[in-house]
Amino acid sequence: MSSSTSVGTDEHPAVVLTGITKRFPGVVANSDVHLTVRRGEVHALCGENGAGKSTLMKILYGMQPPDEGTIEVNGEQVRFRTPSDAIKAGIGMVHQHFMLADNLTVQENVVLGAEALHGIGKKARARIIELSGRTGLNVDPGVLVEQLGVADRQRVEILKVLYRGAKVIILDEPTAVLVPQEVSELFDTVRGMQEQGYTFLFISHKLDEVRAIADSVTVIRRGTTVGSADPKTVSSRQLAEMMVGSELPSPETRESTVTDTVVLDVKGLKLMTPDGSRPILDDVDMVVRSGEVVGIAGVEGNGQTELVETIMGMRKAGSGTITLQDQDITKLGTLARREAGIGYVPEDRHRHGLLLTQPLWYNRILGYQTRKPTSKGIWLDTDGAKKDTERIVADFDVRTPGIDVPAAALSGGNQQKLVVGRELSGDPVLLIASHPTRGVDVGAQALIWDEIKRARAAGLAVLLISADLDELIGLSDTIKVMLRGRLVADADPNTVTPEDLGSAMTGAGATSASVQETGTAHGTAVVEEGEN
Amino acid sequence: MGHLRGKLLPPALAIVFSLLLCGVALIISGANPLSAFGAMVTQVGKGTTLVDIVNSTGIYYIAALAVAIGFQMNLFNIGVEGQYRVAAVIAAVVGGSIALPPGIHTLVIIIVAALAGAAWAAIPAILKVTRGVNEVISTIMMNGLAIGFSAYLIRRDVFGELRGNNIRTAEIPESGWMPGISFGGSGTMFGFLFVAIALGIGYWVMMNKTRFGFELRASGESSTAASAGGVSAKKMVLLSMLISGAIAGLISLPELLGRDHTFSLNFTAGIGFSGIAIALLGRNHPGGIAFGALLWAFLDKSGLALDNVGVPREIVTIMQGSIVLSVVVAYEVVRRFELASEQRRVGRELGTVGGAA
To answer: Which residues form a coiled coil (chain B) (predicted)?
Structure first.
């Protein structure tokens, strides 16, 4: 494999994608994408969640065939049917979620599926030791993977693709799971390997990291490549504008509608990992008032998902209280909390929001199976559910041929409009919206923002979790920064910039007067992390 | 149009496929498939075969309903076999030892059987909810226990009595019987069949019209979405297992109340396992299950005729097995095809394919 890849002359770029288009039913994931990766460079692919980065990488890695367009590797046009075709052409992928067997050793994990290359014995071991130096992995190949930390596991993943002869390595959001110190170690490894002639495709939406590591940047927005930039000269602001685009509707809400009425009051909320070893939520205090949008900013995996699920009663808090409109709901189940007036737009609508093979009107009942208009006592009111689904379809502009089609047949944006419409039905007092516009089109995004603003003006309390910092700053009346299960800082959405917020999110501390660290205990936590 | 096609095409394909498969098996073994199948069909008109088929259909129907309730939420109640055995012996013991007016006596036996089945199912249900024990494993174990438990209960020093070469429980007095419909020499249809029909209707109403049915279906479709929608997974596991067990408890009643009036060593075993296959065949739908039960009963009863034409009767088992296997495959193939075509249709009607929305 490696011999054939080294035959290509140096004038040819490592990878060229031309006019790649990929359609899924009802939505175009990639349209006319152009991407050129030169040999030996670190090429960053930037874009928001749902912009089409992962689809593009799946196409390059042979997991999905493109509908149109060509792929060239080392100047030769190729057609990948399976990932093993891509591997043969020298392309390897390190997935965001590790694909390792914990109960096997490093060596076993690496040779698994590639036994034909160097066997499974001494030869394989020698090759692994030779390669692991390049990845910065300093463990014996006989060590069990379960004994390794996250950063070393990632190195094992890189080792796996090197072992299979990869020269071009796709890193899919590699820093999402790493702490800042590990990120800089990873970058050292990448640079070292780059000098040895490896090419990297680095997928990320974290602009600071992109500027730190990449030699060139391609920005992808709403499924298509919108341009390239030189990371040495471009600012994060400019990159963000390219990613977000100028046609993007503004999420900004100007005049404040915040009242004094406390709707949600969370006190001292704690949640431990299932094995009880460390806290996921650590002493969270929070108040959401009527007419107020409280935004939670944070790098993914810092407890936002768990916070929402604990407030929804899907996880059981270790200690602390949750009060909704003077009613203690700490001990109530999810259904009772919904009945008490919580609407919930989950972060993953497929897993938590919809019954995909069921018709739209059947989905209207989910979460409302005990209330009008979808039920009467122990009986379902299917007529009422259908009528109210028609209303949602009309009011929220859900593009569908009818309410009898299965939810899976709609595009992401229309599914999300249905979910938002449902959760704003039944007069909620609190709406919990997790990434409400993730992976939806511009039109749906604008509509969802409008609906949240309208509900807020009508006195709804909103808890908003979003990775889209512009959305967060634009919609929120108060922003809280979450880091390792704690609310570490407050930010004023009127003055804070995404850059300020970004540095607070990574625990680098307040860099602006707009961001105020909260509480002495939390303050020291940030300092401790700074010392790492 | 496509809706009905998606429901009827797979079983039709599966039956045709398994007929072909059995035909090949018959030819290899040196028999004429046409005469074999012909013998099976003409057997229906002979003696009590038709009534036997109908009776057997009712019994299989109840068994498959019991399994289907668990299937609706991806709960694999393999323990139906053990649940109805335990229910049968307890119902027979209780029915044979009490004296009540006609009607009430029968009703008490029915209730006791349902409670006994539910109680036997409650053990794996509680284990699953509190300790996370896989219900497949625990219900299989409970089946083993049920055989030993029922054998113990009919020992002569417990509740059993020796009658000829057979050990059995005390006979249920006539007040506890359920009369059937006699067709003279063609046999007697069990009265309990009407209960089976009522159960089917009740099952349909429960699944389609009640909150409980919604929660059951939602849990089966997506346990994560159901829990976000406020459906308690543990409550649903417990309830569906108990209802499944209660219905399983009724499986032996057509024979117990309409023919045998006692639990003996001649007890008909294996219906619980057939119920699993029939529920799969009928896609948990009350109508589909009725059809599957009828097919199963037909193969069982008219398969007896195969011995007369010199064909091993076991060919029926091959046919039953291949029907279930191919129906599972066919449903999955058709389901994927239908979903993809539905998505294309929606995309086409909205005109979004080809341009970002």
So the answer is: none
